[in-house]
Structure formats: C-alpha cells, structure tokens
Write a structure and sequence with these properties.
Shape: elongated
Structural class: mainly alpha
Number of helices: 9
Mean pLDDT: 93
Oligomer: single chain
C-alpha cells in the first residue's frame, strides 16, 4: 500500500510539472493533473491539500537549497578576516554562483517553472528575495570598508538593488532562454568577472 501511495504521489508530481510548465500556476488545472497522473481527485487530495501545496512540494525544496547555498557562502565570507575578505570577495561569490547554476541545471524543469510559471504563488518573489539578501550583505560590507578607511564611492540608495537584481536576473535568464550548461557556465564566469570588477572599483579596492 505504501508503495502504491508513493507511486501515485510521484505520478501527480510529474503531471503537475508538465501542467505548470505548459499553463503556469494560475491556469493549471488540478482536474487535468489528476487525470494525467491516472488518479482520482480523492487520491490527489490525500497527498496534497490544494494547488498551492502541490506547487510547494514541487518547487519549495529547490528554492530552499539555493537559498541555503547562498547563506553558506555568506557565512563563509563573514568568518574571514578583513584582509582575507578583500582577497576572496569575488572568488567566493563566483564559486557560490557556480554551485547554484550546477544545482539548477540538475533540476532544470523545476527552475523553469519557478522562473516562468510561479506568478500567483509565494515563490514569484524569489529573485527579489534573493536580491534583498544580497543587498543587506553588500551594504554591511560597504559600511565595514568605509570604517576601515577605504574610499568607497557614495551610492544612490537604489544602486545596489539595480546592480544585484541585474546580476541575478541575467543569471536566471540563461535558464529561461535554454542555454546549454557549458554555455551558461562560460557566460556566468564572464558575468561574475564583470560584476566583481565593478564592485571593486566602487569599493576602492
């Protein structure tokens, strides 16, 4: 019985992935998902409370993993001595971005749903949420550099948001537009080099 339940849940998730990719969250039909999965609506509701719960089961673990990769890199950076931070700033960021990209390509369909079909869910703000985490970290480091006497450029309050959101948007556009992993990795290296050089100039490093 447990094996049958696991099998039906897996079939529902597979059907939901196709439905969300094709129609987006708002237009996706639970009736169609259940039909494609070959289960009754009663069986569907045994596994999932509603469409939001289904979307969460499909996307939530992947969002949590990417956020955890970011948090881990940020913690590593904060544990470094100031001089080490200056040396490792771009390297740690690039390594974290590469880890994210590798994970995303291992779960490509889920992230295509996240980036193109999540409107109406709590995940539609994913890029914004990740951007806000990076802005807090960036502003904290800028303040630290000023306290250390570096000639940090005076920035418009909106500038960090524009730069950080631009970086993440460019990174995730590669998934939306279907770049193969090797091409995406090459573009990502150029992106991180570009943004690191710009930030170092602004930071007076």
């Amino acid at each position: 019985m447990e094996l049958q339940q696991h099998d039906s849940r897996s079939r529902i998730l597979a059907a939901a992935q196709d439905e969300f990719l094709c129609k987006g969250y708002r237009a996706a039909s639970l009736r169609d998902i259940a039909h494609t999965a070959g289960v009754t609506t009663g069986s569907f509701y045994w596994h999932f409370k509603n469409k939001a719960d289904l979307f969460d089961a499909l996307i939530g673990p992947h969002v949590q993993t990417v956020m955890a990769l970011y948090d881990q890199a940020e913690q590593q950076f904060e544990q470094l001595l100031p001089q080490q931070q200056k040396q490792e700033m771009g390297k740690l960021g690039a390594a974290c971005a590469e880890q994210m990209l590798q994970y995303i390509y291992q779960h490509l369909s889920a992230f295509k749903i996240l980036f193109t079909a999540a409107a109406g869910t709590r995940y539609e703000t994913f890029v914004h949420d990740l951007t806000e985490k990076e802005i807090v970290s960036t502003n904290r480091y800028l303040d630290q550099l000023r306290q250390e006497g570096h000639a940090v450029a005076e920035l418009d309050p909106w500038f960090p948001h524009l730069v950080v959101s631009g970086m993440f948007t460019a990174m995730f556009e590669m998934i939306i537009h279907g770049l193969a992993l090797p091409q995406a990795q090459a573009c990502l290296r150029q992106l991180t080099d570009f943004y690191t050089a710009g930030w170092k100039n602004i930071m007076g490093l």
